[in-house]
């Protein structure tokens, strides 16, 4: 029976990386994305429906400062989460962190803010969980599958690779891999530029949409 | 000195005109009441003043500043009790008070505020664990945390039992005595009459009358009403023909006579009852109220509007 089966490696990796290094960074990025897109969207919808945001909107606390506070608290959670994941992964699978790991908190901060912005935009556009579900599914699952998270995007058709390259997940994971394990040095600068671009655009969009539609 | 100046304020939602050109002023240290039925445009007007809604047209000045330019300053100096508002459900009252206090430059002592509003024993509870009266005391306390100069109260006693409502009124009267300016919306005419130094009666997005409650009532020329219920339907024309009766109307099961000479009309009504085949009960003689002013000006009662 076994003779009928043939195993073949279909996932290609760069020569300087193992699947564990690849997956560990992917899981950290996935966790950061999930906390931003899913958790933020649903908790902000709750705050909106419970009229907490309306009550805050008649205080001197601006929408931007409220989002900043949300981002900061989520960043602390993301750092704890990352520490646990990397600590556990390193202990179980013997991976070596590079010196560049000192940049990881900054990268995680960028990712936390970008995905929180996605979550706050979804919370501003959707009136309830049911309406938010398709938005979060498209944003979250789309980025996870095509974002170099569980398997390399290099295995995808070229047109999907082109889309994945400009979405925030792939460059974010790329920067994490570079900072944790020193993988992908050549693309690091381009990844940083794309992440900073998303950071700027999503922050502006979230501030405008959240102020106009949810924070009132 | 005017704390609030509102000029020709309008708000439309697509084809619906919710507020149709409202103008009024609120003076320093007074309680100003916006009285009207549900859907009259009171909350929309108030939310435009609080910066929660963008007016379609018109001008709002608070503390002499245009609202659009000075919103952050206005929020710093105003307290707000919304008709419906929520607080972080997992936080205790003490934590919510500390959090909200951190938003303002001017801060009151939380212990002092808690004592004043009898919240001392409740500080360890969450907002969801409070009764209706306790909730309203808490939302008023939180709106006064930063020692504001002006407070907006949107239907603050809705859903409260009479005792809790009375207690809330006592607090508002003591706040006015401390010099606080209060803008209050309500659909309870009794509340507006007892608390307000001046009122604006609002109906269908327009102010139909404004002034001191006593002046508005006296301007009607109606001094009393006689109300009763009847065991059988009564021809309203018969009641109108009684001496001293200016008008008669039926409101569900109650007959309502407007009279300028209550002692004459009452005697005539009792004589009429002897000839009448049914019985009248729940007979009451009442002074005219703001509700009568509303009825006179709009042709319907606050309750009729509410039902419509």
UniProtKB/TrEMBL annotation, chain B:
Belongs to the ABC transporter superfamily. This is ABC transporter domain-containing protein. It comes from Candidatus Doudnabacteria bacterium RIFCSPHIGHO2_01_FULL_49_9. It comes from the Bacteria. One of its GO terms (cellular component) is plasma membrane. Residues 4-229 form the ABC transporter domain. Transmembrane segments: none annotated. Keywords: ATP-binding, Cell membrane, Membrane, Nucleotide-binding, Translocase, Transport. SMART domains: AAA. It is found in: Cell membrane. PANTHER family: ABC TRANSPORTER ATP-BINDING PROTEIN (PTHR42711), ABC TRANSPORTER ATP-BINDING PROTEIN NATA (PTHR42711:SF5). GO terms for molecular function: ATP binding; ATP hydrolysis activity.
